[in-house]
Design a protein that fits this description.
The chain is α/β, with parallel strands linked by helices and about 425 residues long. It contains 10 helices and 18 strands. It folds into 2 domains: about 20-75 and about 185-250 and about 345-400, FAD/NAD(P)-binding domain (3-Layer(bba) Sandwich), CATH 3.50.50.60; about 115-180 and about 255-340, D-Amino Acid Oxidase, Chain A, domain 2 (2-Layer Sandwich). α2 runs parallel beside α6 (about 180-195). The longest helix has 18 residues, at about 90-105. Bound molecules: flavin-adenine dinucleotide. It comes from Pseudooceanicola lipolyticus. It catalyses: sarcosine + O2 + H2O = formaldehyde + glycine + H2O2; sarcosine + (6S)-5,6,7,8-tetrahydrofolate + O2 = (6R)-5,10-methylene-5,6,7,8-tetrahydrofolate + glycine + H2O2. Belongs to the SoxB family.
Length: about 425
């Protein structure tokens, strides 16, 4: 079934009897060419591109819960390509280009909204760093403008420009950035993959790997053994636990990240705004809720909920940036598990086990990367070679000293 305006009108006048489920619910087959573990954004996007761009039909995605139950449905929905390092910037720009055509490509409304992002700067040194980042963005075609205080004031007059501790001096603006409806992205990729013959198997937890003579032969699951020539792991916050079943220890820690939504308000925030003197980012959903977040919890955890010190820290960031937020009432908050790598950048690579491939270490930034991550992982699985924009995302870069430390924070995952 294809979605279109015509289809919506036809269903409206015929009693909405023609809609069909977005995907099938198949039983697992005994064997696939490629099995993807994890039905989050990255796993589903990988399966979609494997089928669509690389002609692989015998593919299954195994998800321990329901599709989209992990971070893909829990994030603050920000998409952008405003990175600095040559190993990162072209990859995230590739992702932005895929976002721009995504809804047409998988024929699903994911509410991709390019309403822009402003990263505020508060010191001269920070302005210089943003200028450098803006130049790197221009090199990959990502665009971007450095706004001075007056230009910024015209766009977002409600910020606290003269805060005694954190005066706002300007911002780095990327007009092509924005937001997308996170679960719509998961559903769109799932539907697109299912339409092309991929089996999406929910309530199917991978409990072990069958490895013989250094090569993966398949996976043990809660629904029995499933044989596969290649296995791709894309389980985000569960990366350490899943790869440990294959005997591998990753340069990744898992931490909780919380998100918050206020009651619905009239439109006030034009795009995404990030505070440069603390960690606070905010946008406004189409329903009117202010959607915001801050730092991860400082300790390792696999819990999908946060605690009060971070709630207080995020509220303080919001109040310092835009005091009017103090009058909005909080509607909901929740947590997801972040796979924090040692340098803050991701890994898309083969592993020492033949036929076993890994995708993870996305930290805070995996949602915006979903299309490029899926495409690059599909490229690696199908061809055995890394995609041109993802050659830096090697698993062994930590041993070789080729780090991609965008924030310059060192090997302290909770600071990335
Ligand atoms: C609160 C919050 C805010 C965020 N905000 C942003 C943002 O604004 N912009 C941005 O770019 N990024 C953001 N992120 C990060 C982004 O959401 C993640 O990096 C990205 O979604 C991770 O990839 P994924 O979608 O594949 O993960 P997930 O959706 O977590 O998918 C992994 C899946 O693997 C499954 N799984 C785990 N173990 C097994 C097993 N043994 N067998 C089978 N399945 C298994 C899980 O159930 C899960 O569904 C945010 C994250 C959070 C939590």
């Amino acid at each position: 079934m294809r979605f279109s305006g015509f289809r919506v009108i036809r269903e409206a006048v015929t009693g909405h009897k023609g809609w069909t489920p977005l995907w099938r619910n198949p039983a697992p087959k005994p064997q696939y060419d490629i099995v993807i573990i994890g039905g989050g954004g990255h796993g589903l996007a990988t399966a979609f591109y494997l089928a669509k761009a690389f002609g692989q039909a015998r593919v299954a995605v195994l998800e321990k819960g329901w599709l989209g139950s992990g971070n893909i449905g829990r994030n603050t929905t920000i998409i952008r390509s405003n990175y600095l390092l040559p190993g990162n910037q072209p990859f995230y720009e590739f992702s932005m280009q895929l976002w721009e055509g995504l809804e047409q490509e998988f024929n699903f409304n994911a509410m991709v909204s390019q309403r822009g992002i402003i990263n505020l700067f508060h010191t001269d040194a920070q302005r210089d760093a943003y200028r450098r980042r803006g130049n790197a963005m221009h090199l990959s075609g990502a665009g971007g403008q450095l706004l001075d205080r007056d230009a910024l004031r015209r766009m977002v007059p409600f910020l606290n420009y003269d805060n005694a501790r954190f005066p706002i001096k300007g911002g780095l603006y990327q007009p092509r950035a924005g937001t997308a409806r996170h679960d719509g992205v998961a559903w769109g990729y799932a539907r697109g993959a299912d339409m092309r013959g991929v089996d999406l198997i929910q309530n199917c937890e991978v409990t072990g790997f069958r490895i013989e003579q250094g090569a993966v032969r398949g996976v043990e699951t809660s629904q029995g053994f499933i044989a596969a020539g290649k296995v791709g792991v894309a389980v985000a916050g569960s990366s350490g636990r899943v790869m440990a079943m294959a005997g591998l220890r990753l340069p990744i820690e898992s931490h909780v990240l919380q998100a918050f939504v206020s009651e619905g308000l009239k439109p006030v925030i034009p795009g995404v705004i990030t505070f440069g003197a603390g960690h606070f980012y905010i946008s406004q959903s189409d329903k009117g809720g202010l959607v915001f977040g801050g730092d991860i919890d400082g300790y390792n955890s696999y819990a999908q909920r946060g605690n009060l010190p971070v709630v207080e820290d995020v509220a303080e960031g919001g109040m310092a940036l835009m005091p009017m937020i103090g009058r909005a009432r909080l509607l909901r908050s929740w947590g997801g598990i972040m796979d924090m790598s040692m340098d803050g950048s991701p890994i898309i690579d083969r592993t020492p086990v033949d036929g076993l491939f890994f995708n993870g270490g996305w930290c805070y930034g995996g949602f915006k990367a979903t299309p490029a991550s899926g495409f690059a992982f599909a490229h690696l699985l199908a061809t055995g070679r890394p995609h041109a924009t993802a050659t830096a995302y090697r698993l062994d870069r930590f041993a070789r000293g080729h780090l991609l430390d965008e924030r310059g924070a060192g090997a302290q995952p909770n600071l990335h």
